[in-house]
Automatic annotation (TrEMBL):
InterPro entries the UniProt entry points to: DYW_dom, E_motif, PPR_At4g14850-like_plant, PPR_rpt, TPR-like_helical_dom_sf
GO MF entry, a single one: RNA binding
Name under which the protein is recorded: DYW domain-containing protein
Domain DYW intervals: 697-790
Organism, as annotated: Arabidopsis arenosa
Keyword Glycoprotein recorded: no
Length: 790
DNA sequence: CTAGGGTTAG
């Protein structure tokens, strides 16, 4: 039977009308759209443009962009409504590139204000404020008149990037002039612009003035003003505003307050807000729960978090944001299995879920698992990359970190300050000074040099590259500082033998009223230890519990023991170990053992080594320290015994290697390394240097040779081939006169090399910085910053 | 066909 085209058209038109009515009920409208679409295909008639447009809209709003596009492409000459629909569909799905292409394929003569509005909104929603503003300017230039929608949209974009009061005033004036100034939606957006102006939060007054002058405030007016206060940390003003609000509007305001408190780390206050909500009879909603979970996660309140978890599960009104926050709650509280289980069970995993899992593995040091997850992720965003870059750097994978950073740029991600800080941390790991400097220059150029995370990374990078002055310089020019910045500077000074200054900076920090955290104390203790400030260090250690309520951890005790041993106070060190509030850890014994090594305290050293053999028999460092101690006193049978023990237990000594950076290229050398193309010249040069140094009194110290080799001459040969010596000779040959030589070594340097470097710095009149596994050595004119023991 | 606020991952 032949269908009656008129009848079919009539039915389709009816569907189209229904579609409009049913739009909010997504499922229903999508079903209707499919039916209409099916009829069109089955009966092959040409529907009216407005039916097709409506179909496209429904498909877009049901996230069926491919169907929408298919229909759109079938239209021979899509009208401006079809195009606008397609543009806003793509915008809403986040595909700004496709939206843009449809928009730009439309001739200007065919565009109208609505289409511009859709595109501007798209930019704003995709966090691209600049493009929103540019398009706004362009449309005016092309003669289109902005309307209320335009202003609301472009102001939303402006709010993302505004950093200067002039911009706020300019746009405000333009809106007023066009008559949109007192439209509620436009005013709401203006409130948001004023309160998000980066350079002056004082504009909150202007925001408040706009707010006060809104003739008909709606719920959004109140909550936007509230957000303005909260995002600027003005919680008291926020509370005051809350008082004046209608009861039925308070939910969103409470949610804003709670998330604001959590963002500032004020979780107690956040939870207090939740209590107030509950007591005034306002029901928490799906927006509240994730913030509450985050509060628990940052505060480490696992029990409370679990209770909220159970409570929300019973209520069944949660969104997937909730699951994502749970993943982070559990891993932050150290419950990796639970976190993983929640992730696996999630019905809908999105990018945030993957990033939560990734960051869980990264921040808990499970870098291997993190790498697997990262590989498995199909979709990644800038945050995924940032998490991974920082994670790699923080776990010592500097090269991989840098590789990922350049990969990120290749794939078109514009690195933000946090990504830069990951790259800079990678440079810190590698000691890649030139590379790090280049990043610093780029930061300045882009204007990220005021960033806290980048600044903190720079301090550490310069310190780890041995350039304390620059670390100090970065710190002193940073516009704002946090405890990480202070810790980084104190560490930088301490590492390089400026113990007294490190302590001064710590005192300065205290005077400024900044509370030290456990890392600060750890850093200060290290500085005291390196500078031999025993009494001071002791005083700081005691202040931890009594003044700052920070119970000292094993790491703090280890520093204390190190401090005592280095000044030869072994009895004190022993009594500290005896009175520990926990069972001594490997860290503690290691501190004792290396302290004993410095002073040749054999009896105590053997005890410490025995404990370490029991706790971490696979750790090569213990064997090396002990056999070095025996070698120093010529007890070669004992040396052999330790070496045999090591062999029997299958413990492999990590291969020593040193490296030097030259114009971003890194040259690496192993012990006895002859693989470098210029090895012959380097060895020759090394021999010449040796001769000259001996004339000045350098005597090779053969006690550092591990084997009991028969002839002393042979032993000296072995000493001269330690990797740091090869690296420094290479550096002296290649680097321009007068430049500081920076050498890096993966293990600790030996006493002979230390001595060698001292003499060398005098012979060649160059500053040499040697960074080994534990510490830095600055050699200048025969002296070393860390004194003449190593 | 187009607008303005509150939720998760560093």
């Amino acid at each position: 039977m032949q269908p009656n085209p008129d009848l079919v058209r009539a039915i389709a038109n009816r569907y189209a009308a229904n579609l409009r009515l049913c739009l909010p009920l997504r499922r229903t409208s999508l079903q209707l759209a499919r039916a209409v679409h099916g009829n069109i295909i089955t009966f092959g008639f040409q529907p009216h443009a407005h039916i097709l447009n409506r179909l496209i809209d429904v498909y877009c709003k049901s996230s069926e962009l491919d169907y929408a596009r298919q229909l759109f492409d079938e239209i021979s000459e899509p009208d401006k409504i079809a195009r606008t629909t397609m543009v806003s569909g793509y915008c809403a799905s986040g595909d700004i590139a496709l939206a843009r292409s449809v928009f730009e394929e439309t001739p200007v003569s065919m565009r109208d204000t609505v289409m511009y509005n859709a595109m501007i909104t798209g930019f704003s929603h995709n966090n691209d404020g600049y493009s929103a503003i540019n398009l706004f300017c362009k449309m005016k230039h092309e003669g289109f008149k902005p309307d209320n929608f335009t202003y609301a949209s472009v102001l939303a974009g402006l709010a993302l990037v505004v950093d200067d009061e002039k911009q706020c005033v300019q746009f405000h004036a333009a809106a007023l002039k066009s008559g949109a100034g007192y439209i509620t939606s436009v005013s709401n957006a203006l409130v948001s612009v004023y309160s998000r102006c980066a350079s002056s939060p004082s504009l909150l007054h202007s925001a408040r003035k706009v707010f006060d002058e809104i003739p008909e405030k709606d719920e959004r007016s109140w909550t936007t003003m509230m957000t303005g206060y909260v995002k600027n940390g003005c919680f008291d003003l926020g509370k005051e505003l809350l008082e004046g609000m209608d009861e039925n509007m308070k939910l969103v305001a409470y949610n804003a307050m709670i998330s604001g408190y959590v963002n500032c780390g004020l979780y107690q206050e956040a939870l207090e807000m939740v209590r107030r909500m509950v007591s005034s009879g306002i029901e928490l909603d799906e927006f509240t729960y994730p913030s509450v979970i985050r509060a628990c996660a940052t505060a480490g309140l696992l029990q409370l978090g679990k209770q909220v978890h159970a409570y929300v599960l019973r209520r069944e009104d949660f969104s997937f944001h909730f699951d994502n926050s749970l993943v982070s709650l559990y891993y932050k509280c150290g419950k990796f299995d639970e976190a993983r289980a929640i992730f696996e069970k999630m019905p809908a995993k999105d990018l945030v879920s993957w990033n939560a899992l990734l960051s869980g593995y990264v921040s808990s040091g499970h870098i291997g698992e993190a790498k697997l997850i990262f590989k498995e992720m199909k979709e990644k965003n800038i945050l995924s990359l940032m998490i991974m870059i920082s994670g790699l750097a923080e776990n010592g994978f500097g090269e991989e970190g840098l590789k990922l950073f350049s990969c990120m740029k290749r794939e078109g991600f514009e690195p933000c300050d946090y990504a830069f800080s990951g790259a800079i941390k990678s440079c810190a790991v590698l000691g890649a000074y030139c590379n790090g400097q280049q990043f610093h220059a780029q930061l300045v150029k882009i204007g990220f040099d005021s960033s806290l995370s980048a600044g903190n990374a720079l301090i550490t990078m310069y310190a780890k590259c041995g350039v304390v002055e620059e670390a100090r310089q970065v710190f002193r020019t940073m516009p704002c500082l946090d405890s990480v910045s202070w810790n980084a500077l104190i560490a930088a000074l301490g590492q390089h033998g400026h113990g007294v200054e490190a302590v001064d900076v710590y005192e300065e920090m205290l005077k400024k009223g900044i509370r030290p955290d456990r890392i600060t104390l750890l850093t200060v203790l290290t500085a005291c230890s390196h500078a031999g400030l025993v009494d001071q260090g002791r005083k700081y250690f005691d202040s931890m519990e009594t003044v700052y309520c920070i119970p000292p951890g094993a790491d703090h005790y280890a520093r204390l023991i190190d401090l005592l041993c280095r000044s030869g106070k072994f009895t004190d060190a022993e009594s500290v170990i005896e009175s520990l509030p926990f069972k001594p850890t490997a860290e503690i014994w290691e501190a004792l053992l290396s302290g004993c090594r410095v002073h040749g305290n054999m009896d105590l050293g053997i005890i410490a080594a025995d404990k370490l053999f029991g706790l971490i028999p696979e750790h090569d460092g213990t064997y090396m320290l002990l056999s070095n101690m025996y070698a120093a006193t010529g007890q070669w049978e004992e040396v052999a015994r330790v070496r045999k023990l090591m062999r029997d237990r299958g413990v492999k000594k990590e291969v020593a290697c040193s490296w030097i950076e030259m114009e971003t290229q890194v040259h690496t050398f192993l012990v006895d390394d002859t693989s470098h193309p210029e090895a012959d010249a380097v060895y020759k040069y090394l021999q010449d240097l040796g001769k000259e140094m001996r004339r000045l009194g350098y005597v090779p110290d053969t006690s550092f040779v591990l084997h009991d080799v028969e002839s002393d001459g042979h032993k000296e040969d072995m000493l001269t081939t330690h990797s740091e010596k090869i690296a420094v000779a290479f550096g002296l040959m290649k680097l321009p006169p007068g430049t500081t030589i920076r050498i890096f070594k993966n293990l600790r340097t030996c006493g002979d090399c230390h001595n060698f470097f001292r003499f060398l710095s005098r012979v060649v009149q160059r500053d040499i910085i040697l960074r080994d596994r534990k510490r830095f050595h600055h050699f200048r004119n025969g002296e070393c910053s860390c004194g003449n023991f190593w």
